[in-house]
Write a structure and sequence with these properties.
Helix content is 54%, strand content 4%. By secondary structure, it is mainly α. It folds into three domains: 68 residues, Single Sheet (N-terminal domain of TfIIb); 94 residues, Cyclin A, domain 1; 84 residues, Orthogonal Bundle (Cyclin A, domain 1). The chain is extended and about 85 Å long. It starts with a helix and ends in a 7-residue tail after the last helix. One of its GO terms (cellular component) is transcription preinitiation complex.
Length: 312
C-alpha cells in the first residue's frame, strides 16, 4: 500500500482493526490515533487538518490564522524573529493605554536593533531592502524576489560583495532571477530604478553567472512580445502576428546573433503596421529600451528577407 493510499485509509477508518471498537481518539499533541479500549496506536503521524475557517476580508483572515508568516529569503533573518507591530494594540485587539505607549516604543526600538546584531547582518538587511524597492518599482512577482534574494545570499558567501557596490550586486541578482524564471527585464529597465549604469550591471551579472555557475539560457525575442505590446496598448491580433514573424525569421535563420529586444521591437513594429494599429519607431523604441536605428535596421532586414508587404 502506497503512502497516499495508507493516508486515505487512515482518514476513513472508524473502527479499531484490532478489537473492532469505535472509541477512537485523536491525540494531536503526540500526533497519534489511538483506540481507547485496547490501546492500539493506529497511526503515529496524524496531522491536525484543523477547521476550514471562512474569511471574507483580510482582517478576518489575520484574526483567524493559527500560524505566522512563512519563511522568506527576502528578509535578512528569513522572517523567523519576533517583530513588534507598529499598531498600538495588544493581542486581543484592544488599544494600548497611553501611559504604556512610551514603553512599547522603547521595546520596538530595541527589537529593531537586536535583529541586526553585526555588520554582515546589517549589510544583508540593507541589500534586501534595496532589492524589495527595485522589485516593487519593476512590478516583479514574489517568486522572482525570492530567487533574487537567494542569488544575492550566494554571492555574499562567495565573497563577491567586496569591492563592489551593494546596489550593483542587487541589480545583477534581480536581472539573473528574471532570466532564470522566464520574466526577462532589460538592463535598461533595471538601470532606471537604480543609480548603477547598465554596463556595470551587465559586468557584475557576467561575473556572478560564472562564479555561481547559474544555469541561465539566453533570452528569446518571444519573451518580450507580451509586455511590449501591453505597454503600447496593442491588440491580441498584433501579438499573434508578431509571434508569427519571429517564428518565420527563426526558421530562416535571420535573427541568429541579433539582440532579442531589437528583434522583438522590430517584429511588433511590422505587426502593428500590417494589422492597422501603426506605432511610430520612437514609441516602440522607448518601450523596448533600444534605439530607433536598431529598430530600423532589424525592420528592414525582416521585411526584405521575409517578403513582408510593408514599405522598406
Amino acid at each position: 500500500m502506497g503512502e497516499k493510499d495508507k493516508r486515505k485509509w487512515i482518514d476513513e477508518i472508524t473502527r479499531c482493526p484490532e478489537c473492532g471498537s469505535t472509541h477512537l481518539v485523536r491525540d494531536y499533541e503526540r500526533g497519534e490515533l489511538v483506540c481507547m479500549d485496547c490501546g492500539l496506536v493506529i497511526d503515529e503521524s496524524y496531522i491536525d487538518q484543523g477547521p476550514e475557517w471562512r474569511a471574507f476580508d483580510s482582517e478576518q483572515r489575520d484574526s483567524r490564522t493559527r500560524t505566522g508568516a512563512p519563511m522568506t529569503y527576502t528578509i535578512h533573518d528569513k522572517g523567523l524573529s519576533t517583530e513588534i507591530s507598529w499598531k498600538n494594540k495588544d493581542s486581543y485587539g484592544k488599544n494600548i493605554p497611553t501611559r504604556s505607549r512610551a514603553q512599547l516604543y522603547r521595546l520596538r526600538k530595541w527589537q529593531k536593533r537586536i535583529r541586526v546584531s553585526n555588520s554582515a547582518e546589517r549589510n544583508l538587511s540593507q541589500a534586501l531592502q534595496e532589492l524589495e524597492r527595485m522589485s516593487s518599482n519593476l512590478g516583479l512577482p514574489k517568486d522572482v524576489r525570492e530567487t533574487a534574494a537567494v542569488i544575492y545570499r550566494k554571492a555574499v558567501k562567495e565573497n563577491m560583495i567586496r569591492g563592489r557596490s551593494i546596489e550593483g550586486v542587487v541589480a545583477a541578482s534581480i536581472y539573473a532571477a528574471c532570466r532564470m524564471l522566464g520574466i526577462p527585464r532589460t538592463l535598461e529597465e533595471i538601470s532606471t530604478v537604480t543609480r548603477i549604469k547598465k554596463r556595470e550591471i551587465g559586468r557584475v551579472y557576467r561575473i556572478m553567472s560564472r562564479t555561481l555557475k547559474l544555469n541561465i539560457y539566453p533570452t528569446k525575442p518571444e519573451d518580450y512580445i507580451d509586455r511590449f505590446c501591453s505597454k503600447l496598448k496593442l491588440s491580441g491580433e498584433v501579438k499573434k502576428k508578431a509571434y508569427e514573424i519571429i517564428k518565420m525569421a527563426r526558421e530562416r535563420d535571420i535573427i541568429s546573433g541579433r539582440g532579442p529586444t531589437g528583434v522583438a521591437a522590430a517584429a511588433i513594429y511590422i505587426a502593428a503596421i500590417l494589422m492597422g494599429e501603426r506605432r511610430t519607431q520612437r514609441e516602440v523604441a522607448e518601450v523596448a529600451g533600444v534605439t530607433e536605428v536598431t529598430i530600423r535596421n532589424r525592420y528592414k532586414e525582416l521585411a526584405e528577407k521575409l517578403n513582408l508587404p510593408v514599405e522598406v
